[in-house]
Write a structure and sequence with these properties.
The protein is mostly helical. It has one domain (9-139). It is 81% helix and 0% strand. It is built from six helices and no strands. Helix 1 runs antiparallel to helix 3 (46-60), helix 3 (46-60) packs antiparallel against helix 4 (63-97) and helix 4 (63-97) runs antiparallel to helix 5 (99-132). The two termini are 14 Å apart.
Length: 148
Amino acid sequence: MAPAPRRDPRRFIYVGLDVAFTILYLVLLTTTLHNRHAGARMVLYLLPVASTAMAIGTGAGRRWGWWLTIAGGATLLAWTVGFVILLLTTAAYLSGVYGAFGKAAASGAILAVFLVIEAVAFLPALQLKWALTRAGRRAFGLAPKAAA
């Protein structure tokens, strides 16, 4: 039988941050980031779905919760990598095709890269780092069993 999860205050801090980011993502997606393409909307709605998965998994604090937290965090990090690649590709295209105006637009795209990293990747990176450490695994009840 798995040991009961320990009371780690970081668990509750991460749940609160995950819920706050989920709300922020949903507000942004429903008020400012409209898109008429269903595929693009689906990709954007991965953000609140993955952060909700991290919140549910971290709040549960069991083995399945640990896996859900890891899956949600990995999804957000993979989304960030893909989006950064798209933004940098766009910046390179703008800079190469449109001359001086394109270089100015490319610098805006590069600034957007830093914003995306801060707004999307920072929290899951910290939460995954914690979940994969000994203290995090212990908080999820995954501590190694003592030798008999």
